[in-house]
Amino acid sequence: MKKTIITVFGVLFCTFQISYSQTVSTLVPGPSTFDDCLTLDGDGNIYASRYVGTTITKITPAGMTSIFASGLSTPNGTAFGPDGYLYVPNNVNAGRIDRISPGGVVDTFITSIQYPTTVYFESDTSMLICSYQLNRIYRANISGSYSILYTGSGMNGPVDMDRDTDGNLLVANFTDGKIFRVDSAGTFNQIADLPGTLGFMVVANGYIYTTALQVNKIFRTSMNGDTVTFAGTGGAGQVNGPVSSATFSGPNGIAVTTTGDTLYVSDFNTRSLRMITGVTSGIININSSAPEGFDLKQNYPNPFNPSTKIEFSIPQKGFTSLKVFDSLGKEIETLVSETLSSGTYATTFNGSSLSSGVYFVRLQSNGNVITSKMMLIK
Question: Residue 11: pLDDT above 60?
Answer without folding.
Answer: no
